[in-house]
Design a protein that fits this description.
46% of the residues lie in helices and 6% in strands. The protein is built from 2 helices and 2 strands. It has a two-stranded antiparallel ribbon.
């Protein structure tokens, strides 16, 4: 859904916000949890509609993906 005030989609806004605030020092799990929580909450508040982002892993990804970092 759109986040008109921020001129982004809701998902994109919170993805970029967390990356900027953390300067990239965030794990994939932390990022995914933040996006899911914020988008679910803010979409109802701002757009009056539910939006439920999900994390989908491709084949061959082990359970350690959540600890991967953007910046080391």
């Amino acid at each position: 859904m759109a986040y008109d005030e921020k001129e982004h989609g809701m998902f994109t806004y919170y993805l970029l916000k967390k990356l900027q605030d953390s300067k990239g020092n965030v794990t994939y799990k932390e990022l995914g949890d933040y996006i899911c929580d914020q988008v679910q909450l803010q979409s109802v508040i701002i757009n009056n509609k539910k939006q439920m982002p999900q994390i989908n892993l491709g084949g061959g990804i082990d359970e350690g993906w959540g600890n991967w970092q953007f910046v080391k």
